[in-house]
Amino acid sequence: MAFERACALDEVSTDQGLAVTLGSLEVVVARDGDEVFALQNECSHAAVALSEGEVVDCQVECWLHGSMFDLRTGKPTNLPATEPVATFPVEVRGTDVYVDTETTLNGVTPA
């Protein structure tokens, strides 16, 4: 695993994800309570940034067509999206968030 610093924990709000570029990959870092998650920052349905959508009930919403993706699994929880997005390991170290983009938790290869 190769964790990279993504952002400060206080940069991640509880109602919207934060877009972060790590190498050539853009991820969305999101919070649900005290838990922090990282997903591919691109809707699998319409190729738009998930970081532009709201975070509600451990899901991030695609602002364009309303698909919701589970922060833990990357799986869509409603249509029109039918394919999951990649999810990545996250570590909170003190006040910083680290993400390992070389490993996916759900086996989905980032687009």
TrEMBL record:
InterPro entries: Rieske_2Fe-2S (IPR017941), Rieske_2Fe-2S_sf (IPR036922). The keyword Metal-binding applies. Residues 4-99 form the Rieske domain. It comes from Nocardioides pinisoli. This is Non-heme iron oxygenase ferredoxin subunit. It comes from the Bacteria. Keywords: 2Fe-2S, Iron, Iron-sulfur, Metal-binding.
